[in-house]
Automatic annotation (TrEMBL), chain A:
Record keywords: Amino-acid transport, Cell membrane, Membrane, Transmembrane, Transmembrane helix, Transport
Organismal lineage: Bacteria, Pseudomonadati, Pseudomonadota, Alphaproteobacteria, Rhodobacterales
Full protein name: Branched-chain amino acid ABC transporter permease
Ranges that cross the membrane: 12-31, 36-56, 76-101, 108-128, 174-194, 215-239, 259-279, 300-318
One GO process term, biological-process aspect: amino acid transport
Automatic annotation (TrEMBL), chain B:
Identification of the protein by name: Branched-chain amino acid ABC transporter permease
Record keyword Cell cycle present: no
Keyword entries, A-Z: Cell membrane, Membrane, Transmembrane, Transmembrane helix
Subcellular location(s) per record: Cell membrane
Organism: Paracoccus litorisediminis
Source taxonomy: Bacteria, Pseudomonadati, Pseudomonadota, Alphaproteobacteria, Rhodobacterales
Major subcellular location class: membrane
Any Pfam family hit: BPD_transp_2
InterPro entries: ABC_transp_permease, LivM-like
Membrane topology: Multi-pass membrane protein
Gene Ontology cellular component annotations, sorted alphabetically: plasma membrane
Family annotation (PANTHER family): ABC TRANSPORTER PERMEASE PROTEIN (PTHR30482:SF5), HIGH-AFFINITY BRANCHED-CHAIN AMINO ACID TRANSPORT SYSTEM PERMEASE (PTHR30482)
């Protein structure tokens, strides 16, 4: 019984890990293609989810600001948009965001040290967070795009008949796993079998060489940031459906950082495996050790695990070996 | 003459390394110190102390601390909030455990405890670098805040989980607790800020500082010319955490009076201090003060402009502030990665030659 309960915790941890992997994927894509460590990925997920809710509910963008500046009371347009159009529109906005980031920020920071770029993305994260709040208001929003939620009855009955113990598994988590798998498959297919995908891999390998065979770096960067924006949108939908669209979303997304450090910054499988390890590890740690030390260990477990791991293997599980020359 | 030297007649390293080679600068600096110590305490009221000057001085100390680590030694840290919490909780435990010992000793000891904790979390820096290290310092941030929330010993088993500063006096003046007057708060922070800035300036232009900068510029090359990375990196973490710990201790005991770990010392505090040194200037003591002044004044100005003048809601002003700060960070990194300190230096160079630029 004890064992079965622990394995239920394990399965739920794996599902949570899939959610971390979704955010981590966006980091890896951008890092591989442009060497930028995009701290704002989590906030991009939050921003995408906020925009999606705002569009679907027909909220007036910047309503708060307009009301304050002109003394009027606008709030909603009075229509609602179906989820599918909302998602398409949000994806377009994320592409616009990618173009803006490239034109206004990255273009001017070419050739700077990586750590400067990293700090610039922290600034971008704050800016986007403020922009999201100003555009759509800071209230906790409910996001419902029609994904099934709640405990899956069929799995509970099946496991109950089979093992004598019903597993509680959220249907949303199962869907998240399926969608994440589809997304990874699509990304792998894209980067292996299309012209743009090959160009993207070439840029990731060597900027100079890619330039010399006529690949436009700026186009590739815009494309990669757009894809990362789309991945952020998917992650935002998942997280937003699960726990509401609110500020803490960007903090949960921060957990993608230790996931990446564990898996290695340059590896898509690393992001997936790292996410699974972190999700599983923190749930099990909370289950076995948590009660002894007062609980809420999920806040720091991932970071400390990554820290300890890095001391022994600085490039992560699947990362490229770091070679330093003077 | 006004603002220039009469040629370059330096005959010793001592002359060459002066902090204020120009006489007008030196006098200006003494005059500023004179005003800060002798005039301001008599005219300060509690609004100016609580909204502007005291937070400015405290954040300046924290910014100097982070600047030593990030600007001089090149190790990016996102754990400043956590280390400030260590300073705050140490000073609280010391104040309540040894009521007879002067508060200044407690604050210094709190800095020392933070230095030890900082060195502990600095150990991984010997293996990992760059933003890997930055993320690793997040471990310090989240773990320390969790620790202070979850272990009741740290907050003396108080029911609310908060820590409250008891009243302590220096020469008969209350400097902590609710009865503290504005001048007493201000003077306490000023003394610490001036002394610590002086120490930082002299550390960074001496041998220790040069070792840090060698590590920052290229650690492998530094190692080859004989800088021990172990001692250089750990000393940077220790000194930096000492400063940050003192800032945390002052923030809690003198400024806030009561604190709760996740609220007062959350991750946003770490970013705030990091932004101060980016805007002010990486690797500059003056920049730490300038950045702290800028980011302390900006919300006050925005609040006065938007909330008091235009009557906009406070939450909207707070969101706009996020946007403005984020935008400014990007702007500074693009236009002037060395921050306000560099602009100030350029102005001074121009002034030296003015009105004959050649």
């Amino acid at each position: 019984m004890e064992f079965l309960y622990a394995s239920e915790v394990l399965v739920n941890g794996l599902m949570a890990g899939v959610m971390y992997s979704l955010v981590a994927l966006g980091f890896v894509l951008i890092y591989k293609a442009s060497g930028v460590f995009n701290y704002a990925q989590g906030v991009m997920a939050l921003f995408a989810a906020m925009t999606l809710v705002g569009i679907m509910e027909g909220r007036v963008p910047f309503a708060h600001l307009i009301n304050a500046a002109f003394g009027v009371h606008v709030d909603r347009f009075g229509w609602t948009v179906p989820a599918i159009f909302g998602i398409a529109l949000t994806a377009l906005i994320m592409v616009g965001l990618a173009i803006a980031v490239e034109k206004l920020v990255l273009k001017h920071l070419v050739g700077q040290e990586p750590i400067i770029l990293f700090m610039a993305t922290i600034g971008l994260a704050w800016f986007l967070e403020g922009l999201g709040d100003v555009m759509w208001g800071a209230d906790v929003k409910v996001l419902d795009v029609g994904l099934p939620q709640g405990i899956s009855d069929s799995i509970e009955t099946a496991t109950n008949n089979w093992l004598g113990y019903g597993f509680f598994i959220d249907r949303l988590d199962i869907w998240a796993t399926v969608i994440a798998a589809a997304l990874v498959a699509a990304l792998v297919g894209f980067s292996q079998y299309t012209k743009q995908g090959r160009a993207m891999r070439a840029v990731a390998d060597d900027h100079q060489a890619a330039l010399s065979v006529g690949i436009s770096l700026r186009f590739i960067w815009i494309m990669v940031w757009s894809i990362a924006g789309f991945v952020a949108l998917v992650a935002g939908i998942m997280w937003g459906t699960k726990s509401g669209v609110q500020f803490s979303l960007s903090l949960i997304a921060l957990k993608a950082l230790p996931v990446l450090m564990l898996g290695g910054f340059t590896s898509i499988p690393g992001a997936i495996v790292g996410g699974l390890i972190i999700g599983m590890g923190e749930k099990l740690f909370e289950y076995f050790i948590g009660p002894m030390v007062g609980g809420a260990t999920e806040n720091w477990f991932a970071y400390v695990l990554a820290l300890l791991f890095l001391v022994f293997r600085p490039q992560g599980l699947f990362g490229e070996r770091i070679i330093e020359r003077v | 003459m006004i603002y220039r030297e009469a040629g370059d007649f330096k005959t010793s390293y001592r002359d060459d390394g002066q902090t204020f080679p120009i006489r007008l600068d030196r006098w200006g600096y003494y005059a500023l110190l004179g005003v800060a110590f002798l005039v301001v305490p008599f005219v300060i009221d509690s609004y100016w102390a609580n909204a502007v000057l005291v937070p400015f001085l405290i954040y300046a100390i924290a910014a100097i601390g982070l600047n030593i680590l990030t600007g001089y030694a090149g190790q990016v840290s996102l754990g400043t909030g956590g280390f400030m919490a260590v300073g705050a909780y140490s000073v609280y435990k010391l104040m309540t455990a040894f009521p007879g010992v002067p508060i200044f000793v407690h604050i210094l000891l709190a800095g020392a405890i933070t230095a030890v904790v900082g060195m502990l979390f600095g150990l991984p820096s010997l293996r990992i670098k760059g933003f890997y290290l930055a993320v690793a310092t997040l471990a310090a941030q989240f773990f320390l805040v969790w620790l202070f929330n979850k272990v009741p010993w740290f907050y003396n088993y108080s029911a609310s989980g908060q820590i409250n500063a008891p009243e302590r006096t220096v020469f008969g003046w209350a400097v902590t607790g609710p009865a503290t007057s504005a001048p007493a708060k201000y003077l306490t922070c000023l003394v610490f800020a001036v002394v610590l800035a002086w120490i930082a300036r002299n550390l960074t232009r001496g041998m220790v500082g040069r070792k840090w900068m060698a590590i920052r510029d290229m650690d492998i090359a530094a190692e080859i010319i004989g800088v021990n990375p172990l001692t250089a990196k750990l000393s940077a973490f220790a000194v930096s955490s000492f400063f940050v710990g003192i800032a945390g201790a002052l923030l809690f005991s003198v400024y806030l009076g009561a604190a709760e770990a996740s609220e007062a010392f959350g991750i946003n505090k770490s970013f705030l201090v990091l932004f101060m040194i980016i805007i002010g200037g990486l690797g500059s003591i003056f920049g730490s003060f300038a950045g702290a002044a800028f980011l302390v004044l900006l919300p006050v100005l925005l609040k006065n402009l938007l909330v008091v003048r235009l009557g906009w809601p406070t939450d909207l002003a707070a969101h706009l502030e996020l946007m403005i700060v984020g935008g400014l960070i990007i702007f500074f990194l693009i236009v002037e990665p060395h921050g306000l300190a560099r602009l100030w230096r350029l102005t001074k160079e121009k002034l030296r030659l003015w009105p004959f630029p050649h």
